Amino acid sequence: MRTICSLILILLTANIAMAQPPGDLHPKTELVQPGVKLTLVAEHPSIVTPTGLDVDETGRLWAVASHTHFRPEEYEGPEHDQVLVFQNDNDKTPRVFLEQTTATMDLELGPGGWVYLAERDRILRVKDTDSDGAGDLVEELATLETEADYPHNGLSGLAWHPSGDLVFALGENFWRPWQLTGTDGVVIEGTGEGGVFRCRPNGSRLHRVARGFWNPFGICVRSDGTVFAAENDPGARPPCRLLHVVEGGDYGYQRLYGSSPYHPFVCWDGELRGTLPMLHPVGEAPCGIAALGNGLIVPSWTEHRIDFYSLSPTGAGFQAKRFTLVRGGQHFRPTCITRANPTTFYLTDWVFGSYQLHQRGRIWKLQIDPEASWLGDLELTQQTDEAKHAHELISGAIDPPISELLATAKDVDPYMRHAAQMALAARSHSFRQSDLSERSLEDQIALLLALRRGQPDNEQWVRYFWNVPDPEIRFETLRWIADHHLVEFREDVRALLRDPHEPFDGYRIFEAALATWNALTDNPQAGVADATMLIERVRDREASPRSRSFALRLLEPNHKGFGERLWNDLMATKDPQLFTELVRAVALSEKPEAKSFLKSIAADENQPVGDRANAIAGLRATDLETVDLLIQLASSEDRPVREEALRSIRFTELDEKQKQRLNKLSQAYPGSSDLITAALDPAGVKVNRPPVAALETWQRRLSLVQEPIDIEAGRRIFHHASVGTCAKCHRHSGRGNVVGPDLTAASNEGDRDRLLRSLLQPSNEIDPQFYPRLLMTDDGRIFTGLLLRDGGGGREVYRDSSGRERVFETAKIVERKELTTSMMPEGLIDLMTDREIRDLLAFLDTHRKSGQTQKDRQEL
Q1: How many C-beta neighbours within 10 Å does residue 781 have?
Q2: 137: how many CB neighbours lie within 10 A of its CB?
Q3: What's the CA gap between 499 and 570, in Å, rounded?
Q4: 506, 498, 436: which is closest to 475 by C-alpha?
Q5: Given CA atoms 469, 742, 567, 599 in this order, what sign does their dihedral have?
């Protein structure tokens, strides 16, 4: 019940002949927490493939039975979806209230006897005016005009706001342009950024509350007006998100920029300025959300769970903690949820793991003991002073001076920063360019964000910021141009991409400019990862070597177009920067011809020392010829060459002659003695070290390392084939994988020690979105990886530790477990010397925002 990532996969799924569900569809439910009761209320044939549910004041259940969602050709059932009414929990023969809608994704009962429905492309309400039990009056409240027609990434997520407004959601719509029109003619337009909307019960005063969603399938509005959303799909950036939705919020996602797991203008957890983070990760494929006391209940379709998230107010937002209430088997797939009273809920169950209609379904009743220890207080906690202040700023109820707003725009609380940005944006028409030039960089960025929000099409302001000589301003200006498709800046962006002396000389600006150029030339889906586009740029002899080298950095090193012919062409340019990027890229390639290329560079004393060291860092000592070369290079007078060779043989079994050669090196090169010792005895690295929990002792120990800090060595360790190997799971400055978090700006967390703590104890502070899953299949295989998405057709998609996607058939998974340990292995620090640890940390700490020098900002 969730968005599939490509149209190709949809077509494949749709063409699969309808498989008969297995005979044993037992839900295998297990109650995990005390004080939880789960009762089966209805099941097939009374209810099949349900997509909406609500309960009225008399206890009647209203449910949508879908007969149009991926309908097989041989399907026997009504031509349209049905709205069914169950008189009570024991009703086995519900009556049909309505049978005329298609791709019906949600149902919400409203005032005056109206039944509100969300179809894929419209919000409507239906009423029984003649009291015959069937709906006869149908009114359209909002219509979505778009060429996209996938069933469940359109309109959904109906809920009521205490003000009386109807709240609903829109998914990413496969990035197709759309127009949403209310009954009074209000039109809202967009592409792939999704949205949460409000309107009056009759469809008037349509308004977009927030944007930046993949598919906010479940919407919940508490009695105090606080809005929450559960996103149904993470795409290539797991996990699914639980979100605190506020007025004007931007939650970072934009499908227009493609489906790659990385894009400079897309984020998933508030990584970009002006975006808001997730409240907490949720189980894969949630389809509903409901309030319970000071928390939220969220079912997970793929992970067969019902979870409770307790909420604690903090600042203007919340902290959340998850408690699993119910766990089931592969034929327990809870979807929609509705609240009958403060502690009683009803849930629908899709039963079978197929997007196609399969004539199965269930309705469950979930009852919670008000005294359950995990539940906490049922009465809502009072809003914090910060939350009240944020609301006043956003609503315009108060009018503080600009200086106060600019101070709030620097607050550590993202919701307070957002509120200040909203208030500044409301005043943006009073800003004057002459007022900005004397302000600090941070203030200028805050005002840029406010102007981008308040006056997105103001070319004069964009031109003003384009001419400000700062890389952070340039990045945000490029993002402004791309997000709002300001084609008048196309030639400026083209010139920036071709300028060999671009003043900021940074890869990050190139990456942003490339993404902007693709957006302005009607190819936004290319993002910065499209291999065809990148190969063309790397081969473009008209482009500057700088531009070609940065494009090369973004190219997947195992791509079929990245081979010896291209390598030789790039070497023929004799450009130092391009050659360096080439060697670094080949060092990450697994192609058979890569080893001979790297060995030739490593052995060539006419090549720059740094490039030889980069080549050696990519060599694996897997054969005798390579080991002999590395032993020879370990005697080099050039320290980077010598030390990379020593790293590359560290875990190689050496013979006595080789050991004797290395022992002699200690006298000749005492500064490399730590690496020589580690090559001779890798296990000795960890001897007499303090416990991993002794952070201060480790800090003192690393501070005593005598050799000067070598940031370039730290970079090589990050990408090294044998030591460090961080790039297997992490991305940095355009290279590496996205299994774990991008570490380009790891030090911007504000705590320098967090990097060291993460190395010492990888699982001690792991964010929940990086919890891996452990699977056991029916043939005894064990796999650990990150759950990406439900792949449809009874398949699940995971990302393994190398960054590759792996597909498993759900029916063949006999056991699964969510781990609270990191995929980063324990003991990794025991494979590195003290000096290597220090240099790696120094490399990761070179991108700190505050106190950054121009040299720091330049790409290493």
Answers
A1: 10
A2: 12
A3: 19
A4: 506
A5: positive
Distance (Å, whole) CA 261 – CA 583: 25
Asked whether 785 and 805 are in contact (CB, 8 A), the reply is no
DSSP characters over 301-370: TTTTEEEEEEEEEETTEEEEEEEEEEE--TT--EEEEEEEETTEEEEEE--SS-SS--S--EEEEEEE-T
Question: What is the mean pLDDT of the segment spanning 44-67?
Answer: 97
> Mean pLDDT of all residues in the chain?
90
What are residue 844's DSSP bridge partners?
none
Residue type at 607?
Answer: Q
d(CA 728, CA 735): 10
CA 242 to each of CA 202, 327, 428, 688: distance values in angstroms, whole numbers, following the listed order: 29, 19, 32, 45
Contacts of residue 572, Cβ cutoff 8 Å, sequence gap at least 6 = none
DSSP, collapsed to helix, strand or coil, labels residue 809 as strand
Distance CA 77, CA 80 (A): 9
What are the phi and psi torsion angles at 615 (to 5°)? Answer: -65, -45
Phi first, then psi: what are they for 748, rounded to 5°? -75, -5
Give the span between the Cα atoms of 202 and 166, in whole angstroms. Answer: 9
- Torsional sign, CA 182, 187, 190, 196: negative
Secondary structure (H, E, C), 542-562: CCCHHHHHHHHHHCCCCCCCC
* Continuous H helices in 708-777: 711-719, 753-760
300 Cβ neighbours under 8 A, 6+ residues apart: 282, 283, 284, 285, 286, 306, 307, 334
Q: Distances from the Cα of 624 to the Cαs of 17, 221, 456, 521, 629, in angstroms?
A: 54, 66, 62, 51, 9
Q: Give the whole-angstrom CA distance, residue 354 versus residue 849.
A: 47
Report the chain's terminal Cα–Cα distance, integer Å: 45
Other C-beta atoms lying within 10 Å of the C-beta of residue 683: 9
For residue 52, what are its two tokens?
């909406």
Residues 6+ apart with CB under 8 A from 699: 753, 756
Cα gap 40→346, rounded to integer Å: 10
Residue 495: enclosing H or E segment and its boundaries? helix 490-498
DSSP string for residues in 833-845: -HHHHHHHHHHHT
Considering just the CA atoms, what is the radius of gyration of the chain in Å? 29
pLDDT tens across 171-220, in order? 999 999 999 999 999 999 999 999 999 999 999 999 999 999 999 999 99
d(CA 81, CA 217): 19
Contact 325, 32 (CB under 8 A): yes
Nearest-CA neighbor of 714 among 587, 806, 841, 547?
841
CA distance 734 to 825: 23
Tokens of 171: 């998914």
Question: How far, in Å, CA of 762 to CA of 829, rounded?
Answer: 10
CA dist., res. 633 & res. 615, Å (int): 12
- Please determine, for residue 144, whether its predicted confidence score (pLDDT) is greater than 50: yes
**Which conformational region is residue 491 in: left (phi greater than 0), alpha (psi within -120 to 50 degrees), or beta?**
alpha
Over residues 444-485, the pLDDT tens digits come to 999 999 999 999 999 999 999 999 999 999 999 999 999 999
Reported residue count of the chain is 860
What's the token pair of residue 286?
């949630």
Q: What share of the chain is helix, strand, coil (3-state, %, to 5)?
A: 35, 20, 45
d(CA 121, CA 143): 6
